[in-house]
Amino acid sequence: MRTEEILAAIGTGLWSWDSSSGMVTLDAEAARLVGLPAEATVRPGTEVRDRFHPADWNEIDGIVNFAIAEGTVAEARMRILDEDGSVIRTVRTRSKPVPLDTPGRLTYVLMGILQEVAQPPDGAAAQTPLTGDWRRSREAFLLDAGRALAEAGSTEEVLRVAASLSMPGFSPDGLAVFGVSGERLTIIGHHGHNDGDEKPFTDMPLQTDYPAAEVVRTGRPIYLESPEEYRRRFPATWPLAVAFGRRSWAFLPLIASGHTMGAWMAGFRHNVAFSPDERSVLTTVARMLAQALTRAGAADNERELSLGLQKAMRPSLGPGVPGLSVAARYIPTGGGLEIGGDWYDMIPLPNGRIALVIGDVQGHDVRAAGLMGQLRIALRAYAAEGHRPDAVLSRASRFLAGLAETYDRADGEDPSDATRFATCLYAEADPETGVLDVARAGHPDPVVISVDGTAVIRQTAGGLPLGVEKDADYPTTRVVLGPGETIMLCTDGLIETGGHDMATGWTRLRPVLEKPVDDLEELADALVQAVHGPGSHYTTGPLADRREDDIAVLVLRREAARTRRTPGRRSAMTIAQAEPERVAAARQQLRELLHDWSDAEQIDSAELMVSEMSTNVLVHTDGDALLLAEVTGERGERRLRVEVADASDELPHRRRPGEMASSGRGLVLMEMLADVWGVDPRGEGKSIWFELYESAEPAEPAGGSPGS
Length: 708
Fold this sequence. Notes:
Layout: H1 3-9, E1 12-18, E2 23-26, H2 28-33, E3 41-44, H3 45-49, H4 54-57, H5 60-70, E4 74-81, E5 87-100, E6 107-117, H6 134-151, H7 155-164, E7 174-181, E8 184-191, E9 204-205, H8 211-218, E10 222-224, H9 227-233, H10 238-242, E11 248-256, E12 259-268, H11 276-313, E13 324-331, E14 342-348, E15 354-361, H12 366-384, H13 389-410, E16 422-429, E17 435-441, E18 447-449, E19 455-457, E20 476-480, E21 486-490, H14 492-496, H15 502-514, H16 520-532, E22 551-558, E23 569-575, H17 582-593, H18 600-620, E24 625-632, E25 639-646, H19 666-673, E26 676-681, E27 686-693
Antiparallel strand pairs: 1-2, 1-6, 2-3, 4-5, 5-6, 7-8, 7-12, 8-9, 10-11, 11-12, 13-22, 14-15, 15-16, 16-17, 17-20, 18-19, 18-21, 21-22, 23-24, 24-25, 25-27, 26-27
Helix pairs in contact: 6-11, 7-11, 12-13, 15-16, 17-18, 18-19
């Protein structure tokens, strides 16, 4: 039997087209397919071209040129017209262009086959590719699908992309993605079905006579071109499929790393013959879908693990403490992780007090989070043993130094090259008295907000960050919260985020802290929004706008006493003999306390008198001094009272210094600058004080008289 007879028996014709002569050679079957008499013939190209739809014929040049350039087969689908211009059939051609050696121009002989393509029902005609450039539309679709699936970051996004894929000419109207759990088939996601329709398929044994189950068992695709074929091959589960009203189905395995992880079902409401081209597209999409689901599943697992670690490693504040209100926030922003090196904690202590802890481990990676978790546990253990704040931080520093060294040696690194440190602030608070004993390890100072809303950085003594030295010392500073006053602890991410340094960052936060709020949760949210909300991009600092640092915030308020007295503001500070630099800190703290005082000259006077009083104690006594400053009254008529107390019984007296004397003018300055001042003897020691009045007519002094 001749080759032409064999091809004709399967509805395939041979043809060739010589571009140099413009002649087309057709065998009998090819001639029949293009609407000519069924006999071998050679016809002019113009005559044959009239048999093809004009839009399809115009595609031929581009297809052939692409095939010549790529050295591949030119593939196209074209509509055949009768003499009246009506479409009588659709044919598919696969032809190989053979270039001819023609000087000066590109010529070729196109040799190939013609096959008739089954036409879909009228309602689906628009969904079947009748134009010629099937190859290029398929490749463009696969490129777009691959890019969209590669960009999907979660399983939900992958399923959404899969549902939106518009395959060239045979887009499904419904799809389902099946997974495997043990020996059972599960539904990962679906599209084109009503909620609840998937229930019969959600927990199906793999041995069930169902196409998706067989695909998972065998790893081979199943194509069902008609309902009759579905009913014949899978009679047991046909009743489950018939209700969806579809005409064709494709079930393909989802294979990743050589393992069948599930199956993909594409359902069609029109008959699909599943030609080799269509099967190739479906198979390619299934491979890309399997890879995308694998990546998304890994990302989902990492996200779930990250969130679980964050929840486990960042404790809640626990039950409320009578007399105190507490709120906290933690915002991880570094490295794309949901956990980082910042943390906060509130620890019940054996003596009935509570410990407030906030800290920041160097780095934003998983190792920083691991060190943070271990350090937090160690701090809780040391606190539970009843150690004072300085002892807790000293032990924690030794613990972290040893732990970091162990990590580095295990990793084969030089400990001096990769030592991790942590900043930390530890405060032991007495709910009844409002006294906080604060120890600080390289951490930002706390901020105290008075009842009238004035926010002041409370400068405290501190030591090196934890882990830098094993035997570091951490002095303790006492801070007293009056009724209604608030203290804010934070990591440097809250201050420096958005291109700020410590100074400009504090300037940005101050209006937020001083805005009246009754709810600490509202204050905590406002602080975070100030540095990470939409408006934060309009308040960037002088440095590069960086937002990679994590943020931890802890806010505590002592409940206010029920009184009608106008709220005031106060500050206290210890000035030690061994720390004369604290005099400068006292001046700065007083200036912040008077930031809205109406008379700038009075602020300068108060600062000068505080400096004189504090220096006098350091020079003429052997003990430490306690400075108390308080502002009371309504704005415009306020009173400032400053006291400096020490344990010496020697009272100051007026002296007559010479022109060259470097001291002895302190009381003269007090008499010149203060509205009221005095010295009060006490049982042990004395207190020297002064008052300034904001108004022209001073209020009635609280006690004492000038020069007393």
